[in-house]
Amino acid sequence: PGRIGVAAVTAGPGVTNTVTAIKNAQMAESPLLLIGGAAATLQKGRGALQDIDQLSLFKTLCKSCVSVRAVRDIVPALREAIVTAQSGTPGPVFVELPIDVLYPFHVVEKEIGGTKSARGLRGKVVRWYLQNYLRNLFAGAWEPRDMSPLPVKVPLATEDEVGF
Question: Where does the Thiamine pyrophosphate enzyme N-terminal TPP-binding domain start and stop, copy by copy (predicted)?
Answer without folding.
Answer: 2-57
